[in-house]
Design goal:
The protein has one domain: Four Helix Bundle (Hemerythrin (Met), subunit A), CATH 1.20.120. The chain is mainly α and 171 residues long. The longest helix has 74 residues, at 3-76. It is built from five helices and no strands.
C-alpha cells in the first residue's frame, strides 16, 4: 500500500474512533442526565411530603392551643370566655385539609398515622362541646375534667406518634 492509502486508512480509523468515542460520551451523558432527573424528582417528592407533614403538625399544635384556651376558661368558670374561645377550637377544617394533603403526598402508612391524629383531636373537640354545655367543670375530681385530661393526653400522644413517624419516613 502506498503512503496515500495508509493516510486514508489512518484518517478513516481516526474518524471511526472519534464517532465511537462521541457515541460513548453521548450515552454516558444521557444516563447521567436521567439519574440526575430521577434524583431531583425524588428530592422534590420528599420536600412535598415534608411540607405536608409539617403542615399537619402545625395545624395540630394550633388546634391544641385553641382547645387549651377553652379548657382553661372552663376550669376558671369563665363561661363567656369559654364560649368565645370555643368557636375557633371546634373548627377542624384546617386539620382535615392538612390530612387530605398527607393522604395525597404520603404513603398509606402516613395517612393512617395522620388520621389517628385528626381523630384524636375530633374526640377532644367533641368532649369539649359537651363540657362547654355542662354547668361546670370543677377540676381534678370531676369526671368530665378527667375525661378532658384523657383526651388531651391522647391527642398529645397522637401528635408525638405522627411526628416520630414522619421523621422516620423522611430519613
Amino acid at each position: 500500500m502506498d503512503a496515500g492509502g495508509v493516510a486514508l486508512v489512518g484518517a478513516i480509523a481516526a474518524v471511526l474512533g472519534a464517532a465511537v468515542g462521541a457515541g460513548g460520551a453521548i450515552g454516558a451523558a444521557a444516563v447521567s442526565g436521567r439519574r440526575q432527573a430521577a434524583a431531583q424528582h425524588d428530592h422534590w417528592r420528599r420536600q412535598l411530603r415534608r411540607d405536608a407533614y409539617a403542615n399537619l403538625l402545625s395545624q395540630a399544635l394550633a388546634k391544641r392551643s385553641q382547645i387549651s384556651a377553652v379548657e382553661t376558661a372552663l376550669l376558671r368558670g369563665d363561661r363567656e370566655q369559654a364560649s368565645s374561645a370555643l368557636i375557633p377550637a371546634v373548627k377542624l377544617d384546617a386539620l382535615h385539609e392538612a390530612l387530605t394533603i398527607v393522604s395525597l403526598e404520603g404513603p398509606e402508612t402516613a395517612f393512617q398515622a395522620a388520621l389517628e391524629l385528626v381523630t384524636a383531636f375530633s374526640g377532644q373537640v367533641g368532649l369539649l362541646l359537651v363540657a362547654e354545655q355542662s354547668d361546670a367543670v370543677s377540676g381534678a375530681g370531676d369526671p368530665l375534667f378527667l375525661e378532658l385530661q384523657q383526651r388531651r393526653h391522647e391527642a398529645h400522644e397522637a401528635v408525638q406518634a405522627f411526628q416520630a413517624f414522619a421523621r422516620r419516613l423522611l430519613e
